């Protein structure tokens, strides 16, 4: 196999093509994209995906690596970038044309159960109101854009905002930014129900995937530099084909070979190991956007300080209330002490410094000073006000005597003498005689005796004389 034919083999084209380095010129350091729909807190675990050349050469579509391809000439200019937008434009010149060439050469040889995928921008596939990924592995143009599934979403970042070495830095802010980008990619993967995705920067490619029932876990493969390619003295080759695979292949993964492999994986329509994995669980509540840098942590610290300040203010107000209560006059103190000796039930507590001082009594009608009261004190005060007010002993005694007198006046005498009975009968007869005396009227036809009988009926039973 001569050199000219080797350049037309898919494997050689994807491993020997040199990608120009993108040089940073300008650009500001800052944070990555945030949204209420995804957050770095969504990433509970970042698991390693052991992706190697062996996975590629032993895949069901590995035989496509031996098919001929017409290579594109590599870019000769030295492009520069300053932000994500310029990085995406430069990659469209030096990187993505080679990927599209390899995919187009593989389409006629796809095995059964695979669909043609095209490497395109994210807006060429179905869109989500919450955001659109930068890249898409979409289906054919025969389907309308609103129904065109993005089987392989990708995100374009710049290396000074995100890179694969960020987890090695012992910094909370750096780890937060690293997981923030992963949460963005995971959100797009869930939204498009796909298993695979990737992040590409001006320096490297990072492949990712998710598993079923692991909605907050993302698996990340080792980063592959964009400029890494096959060059002497290395001898990379496919080796002999065995049942459509190349078990004796030698070499390493390049960025072009790895991104071609992801597109081929996403072409698989199988429900068991294909691109479709379904939606993740819907978020119960939207998260607010995190502030840039460490503002969120500073806000938490400030909040804790405010809470401590509130506690200090409450203690000061309690001390002021205590000092106000101790300024009660001596006369009031003696009066309160007398009530306390009379078993009056106090509402408040006694002053620990002066046990003789009772701060508040139910008998005291004076208005308390306007001071801030804690919620527990307010509840205790309300419960105390709901209780019936007690009475002192002198008042109780006077009340008992009055009730006894009124009761005795209404009670019938049980043991009375004959003299008392006759005297009561005489008084009753006198009252009856007085009430039975008729009035002189012109038309009166009623006798004195009948009138007296009617009057006797109107007299209460307790005033009627008893017949001996």
UniProtKB/TrEMBL annotation:
The biased composition feature labelled Basic residues covers: 404-413
Q: Where is the composition biased (Acidic residues)?
A: 288-318
Q: Where is this region: Disordered?
A: 286-468
Name under which the protein is recorded: Uncharacterized protein
Q: Could you tell me which species this protein originates from?
A: Neolentinus lepideus HHB14362 ss-1
């Amino acid at each position: 196999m001569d050199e000219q034919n080797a350049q037309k083999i898919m494997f050689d084209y994807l491993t020997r093509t040199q990608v120009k380095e993108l040089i940073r010129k300008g650009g500001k350091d800052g944070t990555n994209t945030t949204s209420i729909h995804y957050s770095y807190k969504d990433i509970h675990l970042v698991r390693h995906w052991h992706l190697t050349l062996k996975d590629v050469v032993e895949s069901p579509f590995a035989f496509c690596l031996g098919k001929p391809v017409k290579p594109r000439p590599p870019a000769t200019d030295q492009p520069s970038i300053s932000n994500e937008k310029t990085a995406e434009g430069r990659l469209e010149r030096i990187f993505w044309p080679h990927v599209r060439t390899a995919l187009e050469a593989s389409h006629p040889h796809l095995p059964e159960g695979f669909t043609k995928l095209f490497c395109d921008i994210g807006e060429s596939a179905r869109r989500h109101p919450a955001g659109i990924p930068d890249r898409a592995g979409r289906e054919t143009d025969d389907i309308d854009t609103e129904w065109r599934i993005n089987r392989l979403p990708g995100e374009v970042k710049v290396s000074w905002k995100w890179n694969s070495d960020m987890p090695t830095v012992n910094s909370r802010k750096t780890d937060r930014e690293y997981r923030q980008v992963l949460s963005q990619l995971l959100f797009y993967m869930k939204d498009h129900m796909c298993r695979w995705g990737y992040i590409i920067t001006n320096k490297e490619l990072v492949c990712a995937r998710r598993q079923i029932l692991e909605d907050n876990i993302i698996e990340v493969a080792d980063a592959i530099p964009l400029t890494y390619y096959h060059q002497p003295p290395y001898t990379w080759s496919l080796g002999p084909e065995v049942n459509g695979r190349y078990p004796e292949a030698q070499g390493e993964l390049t960025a072009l070979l790895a991104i071609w492999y992801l597109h081929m994986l996403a072409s698989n329509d199988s429900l068991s190991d294909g691109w479709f994995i379904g939606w993740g669980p819907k978020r119960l509540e939207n998260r607010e956007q995190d502030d840039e840098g460490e503002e969120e942590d500073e806000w938490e610290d400030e909040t804790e300080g405010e809470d401590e300040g509130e506690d200090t203010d409450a203690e000061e107000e309690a001390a002021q209330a205590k000092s106000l209560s101790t300024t009660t006059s001596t006369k009031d103190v003696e009066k309160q002490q007398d009530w306390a000796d009379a078993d009056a039930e106090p509402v408040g507590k006694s002053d620990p410094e002066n046990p003789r001082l009772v701060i508040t009594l139910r008998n005291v009608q004076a208005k308390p000073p306007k001071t801030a009261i804690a919620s527990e004190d307010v509840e205790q005060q309300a419960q105390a006000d709901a209780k019936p007010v007690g009475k002192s002993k002198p008042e109780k005694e006077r009340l008992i005597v009055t009730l006894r007198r009124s009761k005795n006046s209404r009670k019938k005498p049980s043991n009375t003498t004959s003299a008392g009975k006759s005297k009561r009968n005489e008084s009753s007869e006198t009252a009856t005689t007085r009430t039975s005396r008729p009035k002189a009227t012109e038309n009166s036809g009623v006798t004195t005796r009948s009138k007296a009988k009617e009057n006797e009926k109107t007299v209460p039973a307790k005033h009627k004389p008893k017949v001996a």
